[in-house]
Specification:
alpha/beta, Rossmann fold, UDP-N-acetylmuramoyl-L-alanine:D-glutamate ligase, nine-stranded mixed beta sheet, eight-stranded parallel beta sheet, 21 helices, 16% strand
């Protein structure tokens, strides 16, 4: 599992080491890992062309010191500095034969603990030439304390650096280390070397898209519990339900699905298909006649009850709940967000059964406002997982919680994790906020981010598969945080296996091999 911490937590963990170690010792731990990564990227260091983008903080110092180590091994290293630089790092680079070049006005010598002597002034044209010829670029413009877009000339340097050869130091410059927000100009790297722990912004969108592959270097920090986590394959393998010798289809979990309609029968087919691969042993599907025929044809394993409906209505609540006892419900895929769906959602929420709500169920919650099913949601004792995309999330929290449209739009851009956490707390439900980096947040604040998603998943029907998969995991006994994050991880892996172009039904084909591959991972010893 990958653990991520806030900038405040990292600073607090660094403080005792900075106080107790010799000056510069902590930085050299980081530099050693960075230089090793850079050398590995280059393959052959001698004769390589390396450009360091050197800001004035400790990140710039890390990059300059790493550049000095590469220069000592025969690389040609040029440092481009848009302002002041870290004095010890700059001196080390010059001693090793590297060159320090100022892009823009040459700063006055001294001041603020930084030095600016022995520099060559270089315009953007000269910087562009160096960057175009570089075999490797080390981005040390800003560190984890940076906020907002890069200013000129740093912004111009970021734009000139080829992402394919750029390594970010700790976090790509211009990416908010806590939120992953990118407010404007920012470095885009193909790899990032981060120190001590993952920074949240390296795992969250859109920052993750700027970071590339992330390598963690241990520098000896003693950290508190993580603020955010991300599952790896082995974590999912350890959590995925596995049948045991004395299991029956009932003991493995029974999932009820209130999905599909005569208007949208395909959603029911996809949700049931996802549920069949999620670990539950028995599926009870309640859906109108047209969708029932489609589900029976596609998935004869499911027990399907055709409930009376008119047009796109999901059926009377008593008819749906009367299909039999279940350990969890998956409700919403293919339902129309009308009064009939709201009545069904309210009835399901009035039970203590675990439930995942998606699509039409979320729309019905929003349409009913703060009363009705929303009141039942906030009062219930059972496990609840909500799986909105951005539009569904915005409609839900503005209608039910009274949040402003402007605040929600701004929050989705600037701090998706914070927004998902706040919504989970106020709604009293676990929120799975879909996106390129899906976030799963519990009411108590625990949160995970999924790192397996791919752009091809942005197509109709893939969310229905996810709903069925998550519901099946709930029925098999996982809690909402595990069910949501495991489902999202497997969903993303299946999309990668299916490839592009991707239709939602391709996930159903890819899921068995995907799950089998995960279950083949050896479990850790007890």
């Amino acid at each position: 599992m990958r653990y991520a911490h806030t900038v405040t937590q990292v600073r607090a963990a660094e403080a005792p080491l900075l106080a107790g170690l010799p000056e510069g010792a902590l930085m050299q731990r980081a530099v050693a890992g960075l230089a090793a990564h850079a050398a590995g990227r280059l393959g052959r260091v001698y004769g390589a062309r390396v450009v360091v983008l050197a800001g004035g903080g400790d990140n710039g110092g890390d990059a300059l010191w790493a550049g000095a180590r590469l220069a000592a091994r025969g690389a040609r290293v040029d440092a481009l500095a848009p302002g002041r630089t870290h004095p010890a790092g700059a001196a080390a680079l010059r001693r090793a034969g590297g060159r320090l070049r100022t892009v823009g006005p040459v700063p006055a010598p001294g001041g603020a603990g930084r030095e600016a002597t022995d520099r060559d002034p270089t315009g953007l044209e000269g910087a562009a030439t160096l960057l175009a010829r570089a075999d490797l670029v080390l981005d040390g413009l800003l560190g984890i304390g940076g906020r907002g877009a890069l200013r000129e000339p740093a912004a111009a340097l970021a734009a000139l650096a080829d992402p394919a050869v750029t390594v970010a130091v700790d976090v790509p410059s211009g990416v908010d280390a806590d939120t992953g927000a990118v407010a404007g100009a920012a470095v885009r790297a193909s790899s990032t070397v981060t120190f001590g722990t993952y920074k949240r912004g390296l795992l969250l969108a859109p920052g993750a898209g700027h970071a590339g592959q992330v390598e963690l270097v241990d520098i000896g920090l003693t950290l508190p519990g993580p603020d955010l986590t991300a599952l790896d394959d082995a974590d999912v393998a350890a959590r995925y339900p596995r049948p045991v010798d004395d299991d029956s289809k009932y003991t493995r979990g029974v999932l009820g699905l209130a999905v599909g309609s005569d208007a949208y029968p395909g959603a029911a087919v996809l949700a049931v298909g996802g549920a069949l691969r999620g670990g539950a042993g028995y599926l009870r599907v309640a859906t109108p006649a047209g969708a029932a025929a489609a589900v029976r044809a596609a998935h004869p394993e499911a027990v399907v009850t055709a409930v009376e409906a008119s047009g796109a209505e999901p059926g009377r609540p008593d008819d749906v709940l009367g299909v039999g006892r279940v350990q969890a419900w998956a409700v919403g895929s293919g339902l129309v967000p009308d009064a009939a769906t709201a009545a069904l959602v309210a009835a399901v929420l009035a039970t203590e059964t675990a439930v995942v709500l998606d699509a039409g169920a979320l729309g019905a919650l929003a349409a009913a406002g703060a009363s009705g099913p929303a009141a039942a949601l906030r009062a219930r004792a059972g496990t609840t997982l909500l799986t909105p995309h951005d539009g569904e999330f915005a409609r839900l929290v503005t209608a039910v919680l009274g949040w402003s449209d402007a605040d929600v739009a701004a929050g989705l851009r600037a701090d998706r994790l914070g927004l998902a956490r706040a919504a989970a707390t106020e709604l009293g439900a676990t929120v799975l906020l879909k996106g390129s980096r899906t976030i799963v947040a519990e009411p108590g604040g625990a949160a995970r981010v999924n790192t397996t998603g791919v752009p091809a998943l942005a197509t109709a029907g893939t969310g229905d598969v996810l709903t069925g998969l998550a519901g099946s995991l709930l029925a098999a006994g996982l809690g909402a945080l595990d069910a949501g994050s495991v489902a999202a991880h497997v969903h993303g892996l299946a999309a990668r296996r299916a490839g592009a172009p991707l239709a939602a039904a391709d996930l159903l084909t890819a899921l068995p091999a995907t799950v089998a591959g995960l279950l083949a991972i050896p479990l850790p010893p007890d």
